[in-house]
User: Which sequence fits this backbone?
């Protein structure tokens, strides 16, 4: 920190900072992603602790999609989402969302049946009322395609200042903690420039995540001991014993956990949600100094987007789903994982190819290391998250009997500005006046 002389006269540059903050955030960073994650978190709340994972997840997905399509002025394509179209009805990979999405004929039909076609549909939809009627009355309308030239192109939208984005989302990160009312369930959404986010299939990913001070100095291929030493030095700890490293409690990470412990560092074992814990590694005061080990790949890409905004680093390798996914303590035979992490099934290879994962040959050899920039190369981007149940970074949703809720969210983006957003909504302020959080 430079010394500030409080007695010197004010200069022009003193008032510059607030303007700089406003202008550094690009149009994508300014998209209201937290409105989307907040809606999802509040929608999940009634399902917390009910033991119903899918219902909790579906509540988040439906709320997100509705909010995106009604309120968020972008044209977005889901690149990391609920899965492939045939498996997921909503927020599937490839689905277009946002106010400026290209509506499906089915959606148009519904509009037509419910109402007259809203005038406001132009200027992004170049369809006449006759076109719509044409489409609308046929029963097989779902299969019909509206010719490309009828839609505003991405370029035309950009010229109007409308963001055209890739969307990465984990509508409910931690369906298990949500269903069992355990720590750390979160709703998550990120947006970046079109074509800048790795389309990661839903397989596993070996991750090494560190904060800004150790960024650029760790190496996923180096011995654990060396990486721990780099992290110790960068955080100015006297000893490796002061480091708290997060690893998922799974048989596939057993050897790694033993090694970290034998180097003297503490391991924080987690059952779920390695995304927010990875992000916490780049936030001082979170008591988390790094994340190591194998978790899921889509979550790894979302981690990368947030880590990039925070100036940290992630290094990652894609890993087959065949590795051990059981808790270390769950069964004795779960303890050892002798599977080759890179023995991908034919189906996994086909999926990677379909999703255009780069340098597949190297991936198959376990030699392809994805760095932060390989996972997200966008300059203008945004990441938002809202707590469902309380975790390391965010408090869970609180709902009032009298109607209303308190939510806790964070938002970060390309400019590096970090927003913590506490939202209090109360319907009946007579019975339930607004209070300072924590009082
Ligand atoms: C991981 C982790 C996620 O689910 O994917 C985990 O990255 C599932 O791992 O954050 P297993 O297949 O070993 O059970 C989460 O914890 C939550 O979605």
Assistant:
């Amino acid at each position: 920190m430079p010394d500030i002389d409080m007695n010197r006269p004010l200069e022009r540059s003193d008032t510059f900072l607030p303007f700089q903050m406003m202008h550094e955030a690009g149009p994508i960073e300014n998209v209201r992603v937290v409105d989307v994650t907040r809606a999802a978190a509040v929608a999940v709340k009634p399902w917390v602790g009910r033991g119903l994972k899918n219902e909790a997840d579906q509540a988040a997905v439906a709320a997100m999609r509705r909010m995106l399509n009604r309120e968020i002025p972008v044209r977005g394509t889901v690149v990391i989402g609920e899965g492939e179209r045939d498996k997921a009805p909503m927020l599937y990979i490839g689905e277009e969302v946002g106010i400026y999405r290209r509506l499906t004929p089915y959606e148009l039909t519904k509009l037509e049946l419910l109402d007259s076609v809203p005038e406001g549909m132009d200027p992004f939809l170049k369809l006449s009322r006759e076109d719509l009627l044409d489409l609308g009355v046929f029963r097989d309308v779902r299969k019909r395609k509206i010719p490309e030239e009828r839609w505003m192109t991405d370029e035309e939208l950009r010229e109007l200042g409308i963001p055209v984005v890739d969307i990465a989302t984990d509508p409910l990160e931690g369906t298990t903690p949500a269903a069992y009312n355990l720590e750390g369930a979160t709703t998550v959404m990120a947006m970046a420039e079109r074509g800048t986010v790795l389309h990661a299939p839903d397989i596993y990913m070996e991750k090494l995540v560190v904060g800004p001070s150790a960024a650029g100095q760790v190496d996923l291929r180096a011995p654990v001991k060396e990486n721990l030493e780099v992290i110790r030095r960068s955080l100015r700890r006297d000893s490796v014993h002061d480091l708290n490293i997060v690893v998922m409690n799974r048989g596939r990470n057993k050897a790694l956990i033993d090694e970290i412990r034998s180097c003297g560092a503490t391991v924080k074992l987690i059952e779920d949600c390695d995304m927010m814990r990875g992000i916490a590694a780049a936030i001082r005061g979170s008591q988390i100094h790094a994340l190591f080990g194998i978790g899921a790949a889509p979550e790894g890409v979302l981690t990368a987007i947030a880590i990039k905004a925070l100036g940290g680093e992630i290094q990652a390798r894609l890993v087959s789903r065949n590795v051990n996914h059981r808790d270390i303590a769950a069964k004795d035979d779960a303890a050892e994982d002798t599977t080759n992490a890179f023995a991908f099934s034919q189906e996994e290879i086909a999926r990677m190819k379909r999703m255009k994962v780069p340098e597949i040959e190297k991936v198959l050899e376990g030699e392809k290391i994805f760095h932060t920039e390989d996972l997200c190369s966008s300059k203008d981007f945004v990441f938002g998250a809202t707590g469902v149940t309380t975790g390391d970074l965010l408090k869970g949703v609180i709902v009032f009997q009298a109607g209303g809720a308190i939510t806790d969210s964070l938002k970060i983006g390309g400019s590096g500005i970090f927003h913590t957003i506490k939202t209090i909504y109360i319907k009946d302020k007579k019975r339930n006046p607004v209070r300072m959080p924590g009082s």
